[in-house]
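Handout, page 2. Input:
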Amino acid sequence: MRRRMPVRMGRPGLMGTVVRTAAVAGTATVVAGGVRRHQDQNAAEQQQAAEAQQQQAAAQQQAMTDQAAAQAAAQVQAQQAAQPGAQPDAPEDRLAKIKELGEMKAQGLLTEDEFAAEKARILSS
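Output:
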């Protein structure tokens, strides 16, 4: 007569515990990988948005600099028109100097106050 193996009731045996642990660990690994990919994607999107904002700010600053240079040129022309007997001091040179100052300000080499002071000095000469 053969002996029958007793059927275990209650807690799982060693193999059942190993299989359950492997399933839980595998699931945790898959979920952690998905979360990581999602976080990396969000970080990349945020970085792209920040770069776009920086580019937009730089473009606005350049537009302001160009506008200031145009205003300075208009002021020079107005001053020359108001003084018909005065000899003009090469308005192209003044305009070039003011544009150069604007570029330096856009690069962060000059503050707004320094730019205004130098522009006033160039226009008064």
